[in-house]
Amino acid sequence: MSTPLDDLDRQTASAFEGFVVRKDLVRSFSRQYPVPTYVAEFLLGRYCATTDEAEIAEGLQIVARQLQSRSVRAGEEELFKARAREQGTVRIIDLVSARLDAKTDSYLVELPSLRLRDVRITPELVRQHERMLTGGFYAEVELEYDAAIAQEASGRPFGVASLREIQLSKRDVLGTLAEGRRQFSTADWKRLLLRSIGLEADRLTERQKDAILLRMVPFVERNYNLVELGPRGTGKSHLYQQVSPYAHLISGGKATVARMFVNNANGQRGLVCQYDVVCFDEVSGVSFDQKDGVNIMKGYMESGEFSRGKESIRADGSMVLVGNFDVDVAHQQRVGHLFGPLPPEMRNDTAFMDRIHAYLPGWDVPKVSKELFTDHFGLVSDFLSECMSQLRNQSRLDALHGRVTFGGALSGRDTNAVNKTVSGLLKLLYPDPEMPISDVDLEWAVRLALECRRRVKEQQKRIGAAEFRNTHFSYVLGLDGVEKFVSTPEMISESSIGADPLEPGQVWVISPGGQDEAAGLYRIEATDGPGSGVKILNRPAPTAFVESVKYAEQNLYARARELVGDRDPRGHEFSLQLRAFDASKAGSQVGVGVVIALCSSLLKKSVKGGLVVVGGVNLGGSIETLYNAVSVAELAIEKGAATLLMPVSSRRQLYDLSDEMATKVDVQFYSDVRDALLKALVE
Predict the structure, then answer these.
(1) Are the C-beta atoms of 38 and 245 separated by less than 8 Å?
(2) Most Cβ neighbours (<10 Å): which of 27, 123, 177, 530?
(3) DSSP class of residue 480?
(4) What count of Cα atoms within 13 Å lies in the side-chain half-sphere of residue 302?
(5) Residue 401: pLDDT above 90?
(6) CA-based Rg of the chain, rounded to a whole angstrom?
(7) What pLDDT does residue 383 have?
(8) Exposure string for 432-458, b = 16+ CB within 10 A, e = fewer
(9) How confident is the model at residue 1 (pLDDT cuts 50, 70, 90)?
(10) Which domains does the chain have, with CATH numbers?
């Protein structure tokens, strides 16, 4: 083996004996034979699931021989039928599906590679492998030929003498997955899931891992609607085409209503009824054959039902839309919105967007290259896909009850979308419903779900719909937890004031500067713990900032009751850090911002999003005069502030602020420290 075995390989081989395969061997067989990848994987898992190189070499020969002699290539159908007649039996690898023929009270099998529809089979074999009645599975079939029956009128000379499953024919595999999962840490389990779909987790960032795991959610969650748009070459369609027999890929062109939902002419149910996941590849080129096609799709995405004629039909197939950006994400946001690559009938339809449960940031997924492929052990694809299909019957929403509370910005649809994403992610991480879910993993799933739903909401806001203006998604973990806000990374600049509230204890401030220094933007970050006093973490600490902190500390102690109620600030040790985002580094006259940061940390309340505080405070509690209010206001606007909190004494100076500038920011005035605190904190 070119890559030596690591600890995870040995752990995987021990926990899932018979259900693992080396993924580099799979790639060597890929597309050589007329069978899906997961069939080759299963055979490799049977003969090569070992760490012994000699056994692997022998197993590879067996697999190659079996696939070569038993795969029916195009044009060889009659050759195999003739062999069955001459030899009495022949072995083939094929998709086996069965039906009950009520006229003869017998079961009949269909073998598509030989174009045979009425092959005899015993009821015992059907009972042993009941999955052949629900769509079928791949098997090694011993096909017999009876010449005597061939002489009869309407005789069926071909029959199944025996079969050996290749794709899983047993349905009770979820217990094996759940039991094996208990032997792994969460980090190792994520690595194994990624290796199971052919990628090496150790070569991916945490952000990239999250995005790829999110791709797997439609497989484990019913009626889940996902959009992924991003650069070309990131393997968006691979998972839906190669890894699972429960997914179907539609590549561009017309998506007919009859094919998608139901054919009115013959009552044939469509793709959403037959598959767990239906994926539209190259979605920009997809169109419906009927005007109401998108409306039927919207109705289905909302409720999981569609009506054609008198009948209302339920299905649980998930919808995935994948496509490419022709430009980078930053440019896409400048010229329009992130749903721009969708077809025209969907592109600006906020009602359609509202039914999208998650927008996966495709620009965070790396381009597929040989370096990303794994050479290690992973779970056999059809074992994993069978387990994922069964997980659709479960929910992990009970993990949220009493542990997570969502903020007021989420509508009913938002909450439903986030719940589905969280449930899907937790099912991937915890296939055993009895296994306790840690707070860390729960918070990871909640933050990812909120971000992906908020991305949908932000695009709706861009289109101009007023009802979607509140996008400040937040959550509280635990009964006494702190409200935390979740943003979408592509909309954040480190050096600009975002619209989202910061963590408690964090405040944007502008220092007015002085004789030798221009005004500058800072962020004050405060945390509190047991002890007493205020500690500045900056080394060296700017003298002007030290002075601002000293005055702020004394004001907090002197006015503690009116600022923080019954909490005693003297019983807490505060740690402060000043982060500068301009050439200005001194941090002079930011005392009011320091008081607000200390109070915010103590009260565990966030400062309002988009707000920046200006003003210093002296030892006696008076607010210091500001001499350059106009340049401070202009800097706040330049940095993206929505609200500017200033001393009331600066009001007259702002008459000189241009009309254009005055319309871009909401200026609020305060008279003292308490007034500033009340106006700064989130209610």
Answers:
(1) yes
(2) 177
(3) T
(4) 13
(5) no
(6) 32
(7) 85
(8) ebeeebeeebbbbbbbbbbbbbbbbbb
(9) very low
(10) 7-70 (no CATH), 77-165 (2.40.50), 223-367 (3.40.50.300), 494-680 (3.30.230.10)
